[in-house]
């Protein structure tokens, strides 16, 4: 990918349970608040007295679930190996390049981060490679007089990488420097650049510095033409943002960024810690400010650690078969938290459902990904355990493009409001958008397409994220109200002449297909002159059309990058956000969104995000359809399963295989999940 890809349609999240989806990529190259980054004059942070390193608490033994009528008698197939029958491709093994959940799942098990989530909690953290979670109370977060913030992480000693090299503070700094300077197209680097340097691309920072040096305007500067001095100065600012102080590492933020801990916690592959010496030996960036440009925005296969791994995590890479897509990991017996219970993890890419089903039936797969439309064929299989009800940090929605690209656009018919098409600004009329919302039937969608395993969405922030408003108003199916709005739309012309448009959706995306069929039926019931056609497109075609602005209306979804309300309202409502740009929403909500991310007071943040959710409803910016619930199918002999919605997928570290196996019932009950066994 040569350009920043900022629209990703994730409607398959509502279809495939456990499907590892491509993450939405970086937002446009303009920072949220484009101000030049300067090195702040910061007083030194007094290092607090170091307590004994905290060790993450062990996974507790589960309590017994309701037992099936027939106990397992064995034998257990491959007792030390966990085999997963999966659907998705792994894109890369470089954690700083990865921005998809299938690659993220591998990084999750091979690399460690500074901190990690506490069991199934999405709000609490435990130390990982750091010995403490920084806070104001323990003195590891300091706010300076100029508004900047310093966050210090004391680091664990005695940890080894898989190749035997010692883990050091320099490895931490190098890892964060590398992800910021690499900044591959469509990658995750913006997630680190934004809080640390107030830019969304390293090219933006370089152009700002070049503009200060030359007096030119930053937006008129070609990044590839900036001076060598500017490139060095850019790297030096990156180095100032993440600094080694003794055995600690400091992060210097120009302003507060409330969700920073989520940016660096385990599950964020871009914040994985790699071995600088090893990476350099493989041909990766050597850490010099004179050489970083040669490693900027690499092609995937040219990345020196594209197919290599060396972390501190509980598993080590054994083999990645590019021909089959299969990957195997082996246990790191020297893992600092203690070795995993399983000796090997094998993830097999199995496209055919019938094969995955057979593997699960025969015990040849311990865990299998099952498409929602096939669950009736798997439920009741002897020896299988189903755990369901996992709340996904994903929202599905139908987006309205308020300024459609008209040239050569086959989806808007005549391009006029003449009954044979729609004008490019058709959805800029709020009565059109409200009419579509009032014509939608959430109950039918969730029942028919999602088998009642989803919740109706209440706006741009999902349940489970802080500042979600459970009482935010929502639209209901109301054809009488829809008729009233359509009769007002475009001065009454919509009702009089009708309209015709085409809604594309992803091939095999049953949920999106059903959603548009619901709209089509109800629009026809309202007025026979209302014509909504549908067409399915391959992924690449749908992505291209969403980027070029030709889609008048389309189904999409967002899977969060980090667990904070800002990561929801920004992509959906901010003028520089992924989806807001495609909807051409303008800057109406920008000031309020920027205020929310810069506010530290939780009560004030709640007021801001409640207001944004209300505005999304009042302005009918989209049809927010559903928040999916998950299913997890495994053999009954798999022990210790639990779930955290922040993880890229599964956590193999606490799992084992035994005849009296159970999921971790403490966590299962805490999350309100349902366990069924056959």
TrEMBL record:
GO terms for molecular function: peptide transmembrane transporter activity. GO terms for biological process: peptide transport. One of its GO terms (cellular component) is periplasmic space. Residues 61-71 have a biased composition (Low complexity). Residues 46-57 have a biased composition (Basic and acidic residues). Residues 127-578 form the Solute-binding protein family domain. SUPFAM superfamilies: Periplasmic binding protein-like II. Residues 26-78 are annotated as: Disordered. InterPro entries: Peptide/Ni-bd (IPR030678), SBP_5 (IPR039424), SBP_5_dom (IPR000914). Pfam families: SBP_bac_5. This is Solute-binding protein family 5 domain-containing protein. It comes from Fraserbacteria sp. (strain RBG_16_55_9).
């Amino acid at each position: 990918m040569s350009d920043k890809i900022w629209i990703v349609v994730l409607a398959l999240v509502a279809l495939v349970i456990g499907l590892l989806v491509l993450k939405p990529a970086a937002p446009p190259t303009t920072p949220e608040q484009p101000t030049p980054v300067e090195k702040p004059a910061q007083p030194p942070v007094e290092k607090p007295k170091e307590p004994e390193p905290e060790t993450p608490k062990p996974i507790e033994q589960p309590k017994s679930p309701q037992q099936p009528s027939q106990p397992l008698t064995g034998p257990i197939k491959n007792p030390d190996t966990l085999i997963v029958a999966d659907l998705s491709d792994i894109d890369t093994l470089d954690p700083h390049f990865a921005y998809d959940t299938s690659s993220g799942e591998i990084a999750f098990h091979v690399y460690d981060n500074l901190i990690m989530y506490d069991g199934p909690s999405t709000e609490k953290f435990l130390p990982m490679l750091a010995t403490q979670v920084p806070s104001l109370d323990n003195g590891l977060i300091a706010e300076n007089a100029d508004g900047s913030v310093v966050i210090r992480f004391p680091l664990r000693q005695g940890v080894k990488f898989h190749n035997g090299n010692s883990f050091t503070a320099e490895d931490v700094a190098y890892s964060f420097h590398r992800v910021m300077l690499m900044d591959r197209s469509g990658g995750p680097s913006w997630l680190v650049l934004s809080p640390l340097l107030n830019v969304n691309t390293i090219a933006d920072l370089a152009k700002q510095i070049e503009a200060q040096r030359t007096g030119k305007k930053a937006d008129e500067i070609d990044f590839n033409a900036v001076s060598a001095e500017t490139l060095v100065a850019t790297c030096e600012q990156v180095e100032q943002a993440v600094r080694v102080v003794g055995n600690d590492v400091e992060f210097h933020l120009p302003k507060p960024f409330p969700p920073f801990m989520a940016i660096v916690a385990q599950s964020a592959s871009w914040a994985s810690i790699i071995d600088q010496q090893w990476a350099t030996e493989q041909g990766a960036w050597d850490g010099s400010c004179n050489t970083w440009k040669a490693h900027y925005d690499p092609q995937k296969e040219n990345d020196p650690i594209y197919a290599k791994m060396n972390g501190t995590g509980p598993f080590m890479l054994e083999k990645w078969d590019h021909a089959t897509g299969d990957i195997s990991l082996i246990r790191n017996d020297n893992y600092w938290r203690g070795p995993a219970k399983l000796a090997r993890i094998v993830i097999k890419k199995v496209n055919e459902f019938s094969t995955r089903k057979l593997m699960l039936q025969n015990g040849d797969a311990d865990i299998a990904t099952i498409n929602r439309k096939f669950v009736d064929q798997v439920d009741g299989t002897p020896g299988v355990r189903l755990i369901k009800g996992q709340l996904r940090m994903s929202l599905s929605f139908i987006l309205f493009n308020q300024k459609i690209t008209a040239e050569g656009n086959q989806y808007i018919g005549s391009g006029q409001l003449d009954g044979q098409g729609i004008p490019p600004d058709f959805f800029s009329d709020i009565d059109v958008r409200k009419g579509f919302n009032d014509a939608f039937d959430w109950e039918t969608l969730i029942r028919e397409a999602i088998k009642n395993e989803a919740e109706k969405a209440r706006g741009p922030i999902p349940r489970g994220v802080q500042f979600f408003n459970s009482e935010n108003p929502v639209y209901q199916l109301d054809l009488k109200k829809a008729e009233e709005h359509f009769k007002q739309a475009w001065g009454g012309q919509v009702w009089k002449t009708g309209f015709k448009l085409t809604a594309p959706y992803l091939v095999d995306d049953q949920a999106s297909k059903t959603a548009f069929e619901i709209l089509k039926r109800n629009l026809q019931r309202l007025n026979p002159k209302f014509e909504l056609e549908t067409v399915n497109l391959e992924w690449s075609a749908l992505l291209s059309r969403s980027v070029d602005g030709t889609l008048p209306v389309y189904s999409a979804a967002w899977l969060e990058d980090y667990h904070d309300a800002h990561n929801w309202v920004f992509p959906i409502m901010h003028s520089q956000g992924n989806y807001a740009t495609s909807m051409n929403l303008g800057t109406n909500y920008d000031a309020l969104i920027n205020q929310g991310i810069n506010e530290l007071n939780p009560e004030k943040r709640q007021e801001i995000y409640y207001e944004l959710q209300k505005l999304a409803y009042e302005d009918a910016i989209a049809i927010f359809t559903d928040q999916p619930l998950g299913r997890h199918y495994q053999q009954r002999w798999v022990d210790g399963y639990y779930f955290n919605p922040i993880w890229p997928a599964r956590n193999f570290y606490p799992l084992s295989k035994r005849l009296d196996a159970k999921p971790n019932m403490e966590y299962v009950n805490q999350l309100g999940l349902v366990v069924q066994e056959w």
